[in-house]
Design goal:
The structure holds 2 protein chains of 2 kinds. Chain A is of the alpha/beta class. Helix content of chain A is 33%, strand content 26%. The chains are: A alpha/beta, B mainly alpha.
């Protein structure tokens, strides 16, 4: 579904992405793992067209995404830090997003219900806590039933109940045959979610394996231990 | 874009303009004198508030702009609606703050020119602010650049012009001065209104040349066209930059 070929991106002297090539198919739940500053977020942003690669290209459903924007209808994105205009209420933000993506009538309001955001519709964004903002971002990402979900540190700042609800939702969407891309540092909670692992370091993609293959290679059952083994190698 | 209108700073700005213009008009017995005092306030405050407010607003909504870019929207649409939202709300503030008092006390050709010029100045400095924000990533640097730009247009530029005039005092500088004044929207607006106020005699011989040029309809047309160009060029250029910017 998403194919990246030899994508490179440089910020000044820093090589954020160095010749990254990979393929992501539907029905997969892929974890992007790597130390801080390894280029995970840059990679996500280049899929979303927010960062334009210096060389290489990315295709979405066999179409080059360069200078196109329509394809983003099929992507739900949850940013690492969600900030919204201070003086808008949650209801207004939701309405605005619905307005932007009006072509998709089938709304998926499961998360809005799960997080009981309906009771907070008149709250101003400025007054919200970081966790509630994350809930709004998550609800927005799932709201339009996109074929691809891109979640950047989804559970950071969420309370245990909410992150459990979010995880259930992610599993449910994966079962429906959607592609889910997650970055996270909390490896223990990825265990039950992901089917494949992409490991990045210093802008390079070191490997892209299924989780079973990784378990076999390292001889560890837990993802966190397996990754630790890879990192220290 | 109700967000911007609700913003406290815009509210304070409106009230300040309102208070300033009302007090100026009630202090002076002659309302055209009042207009002159108001002119100076407008020429300093309107650009300052427009440029600083827009810069800070764009930087503060950086993450939200990122989110919008990840939605199925053209970048051009996002940038232009941001521009429209900012300039519309500053226009409303200016109109309530300064436009209505001017219309009450001085509903003449001069008053209308002043409102038109003030509105254009608001939009021009929103456009310049957006150019500054698209050029610099760093918030502190961007706001610094915005302040420098304002300082340049309202103070430094005049100093430079004065310097040039002294250096070339032996040459006939009147005609080139017209061209130079087009390089600064604030100067251009000032000349436009001063000439309408018939105080151009105070500007000496240069004033007479200005009067010859800016007093005519072609002159007024030229200056409004220049002011609009001052909006169009930054907006066009910043949109182009934003289209290829990494967020």
């Amino acid at each position: 579904m998403i194919i990246a070929s030899n994508v490179s991106k440089q910020f000044g002297k820093l090589k954020a992405l160095d010749d990254v090539s990979t393929t992501c198919n539907k029905g997969e739940c892929i974890a992007l793992i790597g130390p801080n500053g390894s280029g995970k977020t840059t990679f996500i942003k280049s899929i979303l067209g927010m960062v334009v690669p210096d060389s290489g290209f990315i295709t979405f459903k066999d179409k080059n995404i360069l200078h196109h924007w329509k394809y983003r209808e099929q992507i739900g994105y949850m940013p690492q830090i969600g900030r919204y205009p201070d003086n808008m209420t949650i209801g207004q933000v939701l309405d605005m997003m619905k307005d932007i993506r009006s072509e998709n009538p089938a709304l998926d309001e499961d998360l809005i219900k799960a997080f009981s955001l309906n009771n907070l519709l008149n709250k101003r964004m400025r007054t919200l806590s970081g966790g509630t903002r994350q809930k709004v971002s998550a609800a927005l990402a799932f709201l339009f039933n996109p074929a691809v979900l891109i979640l950047d540190e989804p559970t950071a700042g969420l309370d245990p109940v909410a992150s459990e609800q979010l995880k259930e939702k992610i599993i449910a969407e994966k079962e429906k045959g959607k592609l889910v891309l997650i970055t996270s540092h909390v490896l223990s909670e990825l265990d039950e979610l992901v089917t494949r692992i992409i490991y990045m370091q210093d802008g390079k993609l070191l490997f892209h394996k299924s989780i079973e293959a990784l378990r076999q290679d390292t001889g560890e059952d837990k993802l966190s231990k397996a990754i630790a083994k890879v990192m220290t190698k | 874009m109700t967000d911007i209108l609700r913003n406290r700073i815009v509210l304070v700005y409106t009230l300040f303009l309102l208070a300033a213009s009302l007090s100026v008009f009630s202090l002076e017995d002659n309302s055209s004198k009042g207009l002159l005092s108001l002119l100076n306030i407008i020429l300093i405050v309107v650009p300052l508030v427009s440029i600083i407010f827009s810069t800070i607003y764009v930087y503060n909504s950086a993450e939200f702009i990122e989110l919008l870019v990840s939605q199925p929207l053209k970048r051009k649409t996002i940038w232009l609606s941001l521009f429209t939202g900012l300039s519309a709300s500053l226009l409303v503030a200016f109109f309530i703050g300064a436009g209505i008092p001017v219309l009450i006390y001085q509903a003449t050709m001069i008053g209308f020119t002043m409102i038109a010029v003030g509105s254009l100045l608001s939009i021009i400095f929103v456009a310049i602010a957006m150019l500054a924000t698209v050029k610099t990533r760093d918030k502190a640097k961007g706001i610094g650049a915005a302040i420098m730009l304002w300082l340049y247009f309202s103070l430094l530029f005049d100093g430079l012009v004065l310097f040039l005039l002294f250096q070339f005092a032996d040459y006939p500088m009147e005609k080139p001065m017209i061209a130079i004044s087009a390089l600064n929207p604030i100067d251009l607006s000032r000349i436009l209104i001063l000439l309408q106020l018939d105080v151009s005699a105070m500007m000496g011989y240069t004033g007479a040349v200005f009067k010859d040029f800016f007093g005519t309809y072609t002159g007024i047309g030229f200056s409004f066209a220049t002011l609009i160009l001052w909006i169009a060029l930054p907006v066009w250029y910043s949109t182009r930059k934003f289209n290829t910017k990494d967020l």
